[in-house]
Amino acid sequence: MCQLEAAEVSAGMDVRASGLYSEQQEGEIRMYQLAVAVKEEGYIKRLADYVRSSPQGSEWRITGFTSTAALRQYMKGGYAVDMMLAAPDFMEEAFASCAPSVIKLALVRRLGELTGLNAGAEELLQYQPLPQLLRQIADRRLAGKARSSHGAAERNGTKIAAVYSAAGGIGKTVTALNMAHQAAVSGLHVFYLNLEPFDATPLLLGGAQEEGLSRLLYALKSQPDTAGDLMRKLRRQHPVLRADFLAGGSHPDERFAMTPEDTDRLLELLRSEGDYDLIIVDLDNVMHDCHRVIFEKSSSIVWLTTRDAIVRRKNEIALQYMERSWPDSRDQLMDAICWVQTRMLEGMLPEEELRDTHGMTVAGILPYIPEWKWMQPGQLLGSLPFQAAVVMLLDKLGLKGGEAIACGGRHTAAAGAG
Q: Are both 280 and 146 inside the same structural domain?
């Protein structure tokens, strides 16, 4: 039987139902958990009543929320959600709380109304005939199953995602760490690899004196047969980040001396010996041949940009350099590039302008977090708006085992900084 369940809070309009947070009984068939977050209590009741009388009534359980406080309370309890339907006012809280594997749909008054940080979310009309709405929800559930099965069958070992920008100081490391964290909390085995010559992440992750990457690079050259055992010995898992990493990084001279062959051996070692689902590579902004190796092995190249003319010009020059220097890989790399605009204020970017100067559609938007101007260790992973945006980005890139949405496209780099 389909149940409407909602938490009761003093400031909300939610209705208490028996069995809230109840454990599933042993031997009971697991019901499909559909969460609905809208302000209108009557809407949730009508939807629940209709589902209860439908063929899905014996398979689906609807949990409704009319306040963000009730939603937050439920999600903090760690209870299962398979699909999240959220009105725009609830999207930030709802989507940030969900694992990338959860199907997330925006309930909108009109299609195409989402802008700013919410732009790009998959939309469903909130007000439409209930049989039609239920059919669309059921179709989306089946499509999610098909994509998940296809991804599991087609995935060839570990996925690699490179995070890059030609301009410094626009949040590349923050983005890479949050991607690693959100993928890890969703259940993936994740490795975060920082290849910047001036790596400051030991301030955030600890282990500044361990020189893990330096020792591993030396072993790969001098004693490659021992490198796998050494990697397993050197890797650490941060209790908050939840992903593995090599503590201490490397000396700048060693990083500058890395050859494409060194880079290839390092990535293949992590792939073959680490048993990882995903490797996030945090790259330096100066592009060289090691970048080519990483880009060619990456299913996604998350290329950060902003509205700043200088940043866009630097990215344009780097893109032209890549096209000119690596013509044999040009089409492959262009298809892998996913432009992500950072430091965005809510409502700052109208939907019709969601394009970078290079003629490629922006795949994601990451918000500006003012508190990070004075960032202290431990604050990086605590921003709810940023978490929500990263979860949406991981969904689009198919980094939870599903099917990626195409980001790149073959084109000629446009002139001008825009």
A: no
